Amino acid sequence: MQKYAVIEKAVGETPLEALESFRQEQPELKGVPLTYAGRLDPMASGKLIILCGEECQDRSAYDALDKEYEFEVLFGCATDTGDVLGLPQAVPETQRYSAKKLISMCTALRGVHTVPYPAFSSKTVSGIPLFEYALKNTLHTIEIPTTEMNLYAIRYESIRTISGTVLLERILSKIVLLRSNEFRSDMIGKKWSELLGNNDKQYAIAKFRAVVSSGSYIRTLASMIAREAGTDGIAYSIHRSKVGKYQPLFLGKGFWKKVL
């Protein structure tokens, strides 16, 4: 029996939903213990490791693997989740962002950063996930823990602009992909519509590729990039392109070569 499989999680799926879809496609795994290693946000897509049978006992080793992501940062807005699956809090004026500035910023961001866990994450405090504190508006009653993110490599890829009305259409098309009814999708869609409906202002979306250590949150990295650029920003899209042990070798268009 195979020890693990690397599957593609779709936007809108939770990791558990992706695991169960994989189980249904593999009848020989009926009754076999399965688990996933390395979470992916519902709005993220890409490679997810599924461990099979006794390999589930070694999950921590797989959790510790480095990851490569392709992601986009939407400048000029903020949400309480750090991605489009959140309540938009403000839409400041969008600035102009030069490729030269974004390339320079990438160089400055490389290295180890101590950052707080996202408010909407599964990290627990006193046995309670942070997202439960966030949903109950009680984050102020606890100290949010921090984690280390090692940003091994990051590269600016491109930038484009999009009008508010088109942006709204695309955000709503992402939200409707959610399979779980546990999210605030109706409320989120309403708030985005209030902010972006009939809005022809142009928003900048920059694309990056990065290799990060285990436990890193691309939503957090997207916010860091926006702050360095002098504004607010969120992760507009996230795709996990590789999983493995990082090697600092630039090979063609890729960052590294050892992958699962």
In short:
This protein is an alpha+beta fold and 260 residues long. It has helices at 15-25, 59-63, 99-109, 130-135, 164-175, 185-196, 218-228, and strands at residues 4-9, 34-37, 44-52, 66-75, 78-79, 88-90, 111-116, 124-125, 128-129, 146-163, 202-212, 233-244.
Write the element-wise H/E pattern from the N-terminal end onward: EHEEHEEEHEEEHEHHEHE
Cα gyration radius (Å): 19 Å
CATH architecture of the largest domain: 2-Layer Sandwich
Structural class: alpha+beta
Number of helices, where a helix is a run of at least 4 consecutive DSSP H or I residues: 7
Beta strand %: 25-35%
Number of DSSP strands?
12
Q: What is the CATH T-level topology of the largest domain? A: Pseudouridine synthase
Helix content: 25-40%
Instruction: Give the N-to-C terminal Cα separation.
Output: 17 Å
Q: Can you summarize the main beta sheet? A: 8 strands, mixed
Report the CATH superfamily of the largest domain.
Answer: Pseudouridine synthase
CATH class of the largest domain: Alpha Beta
Uncertain runs: 256-260
Question: Mean of the pLDDT scores?
Answer: 89
Based on Cα principal axes, name the global outline. globular
Number of domains: 2
Q: Specify the oligomeric state.
A: single chain
